[in-house]
Design brief:
Helix content: 40-55%
CATH superfamily: P-loop containing nucleotide triphosphate hydrolases
Number of helices: 8
CATH class: Alpha Beta
Strand order of the largest sheet: 2-3-1-4-5
Order of helices and strands: EHEHHEHHEHHEH
Number of strands: 5
CATH architecture: 3-Layer(aba) Sandwich
Radius of gyration: 16 Å
Number of domains: 1
Largest sheet: 5 strands, parallel
Bound molecules: thymidine-5'-phosphate
Strand content: 5-15%
Shape: globular
């Protein structure tokens, strides 16, 4: 469905504190070094409307179903207005989070029934998925200690440790069910070791 897809779509995932943002610039540099156009974006956000929804999602209190629907509203806009057009013209897209985050946070973390999410996903994405998802994984303890270094915590970062354990478990379960697309990167290692693995995984594309 939608426009033809020539470029590659790569997403980065992980619990808050896993360190994925540390690696985003490195990955972007490696892709650009190949001479391809790269669009770097994020979720929630990535479009003017999506960034407004992001501010609501990160700061305003709301019901879990409201949160889920706003995530998918922002995503529908993001895919139609930015991601698909970029892929169609041959650009690569690197997104800091995408739909796997909703499975992990809204279903795993918040406990929303997977069928409700699937209905929204079928509607808004119609099977559209990343070509490669890098799941940065660390233990709950490491993630928590890294989060505590952040200056101000948003609405998600203020959650208890048990919430992040559920989010991590949901991410890992998803990775087990789609091992070809979702590659788990042990993010507790040194930056050099992680970069070496990222190089290998990107080479595969
Ligand atoms: P970030 O801190 O990685 O920019 O992400 C913002 C927060 O939004 C993060 O705590 C995870 C959360 N989130 C969800 O709960 N569901 C989603 O679908 C996405 C994309 C993010």
């Amino acid at each position: 469905m939608g426009s033809p897809r020539c470029g590659k779509f790569i997403t980065l995932e992980g619990v808050d504190g896993a360190g994925k943002s540390t690696h985003l610039d490195y990955i972007a540099d490696r892709i650009r070094a190949r001479g391809v156009e790269l669009v770097v974006t994020r979720e929630p956000g990535g479009t003017p409307l999506g960034e407004k929804l992001r501010a609501l999602l990160l700061n305003d209190s709301m019901q879990p179903d409201t949160e889920l629907m706003l995530m998918y509203a922002a995503r529908a806009e993001h895919v139609a207005a930015l991601i698909r057009p970029a892929l169609a013209r041959g650009a690569w897209v690197l997104s800091d989070r995408f739909s796997d985050a909703s499975h992990a946070y809204q279903c795993g973390g918040r406990g929303i029934d997977a069928g409700r999410l699937q209905a929204l996903e079928d509607w808004t994405l119609a099977g559209f998925k990343p070509d490669l998802t890098l799941l940065f994984d660390v233990s709950a303890e490491v993630a928590e200690s890294r989060r505590s270094l952040a200056r101000t915590a948003d609405r998600f970062e203020q959650e208890q440790a048990a919430f992040f354990t559920r989010v991590r478990d949901a991410y890992l379960q998803r990775a087990r069910s789609e091992p070809g697309r979702i590659r788990v990167v042990d993010a507790s290692r040194s930056i050099e070791a992680i970069r070496g693995e990222l190089d290998r995984l990107l080479e595969g594309l």
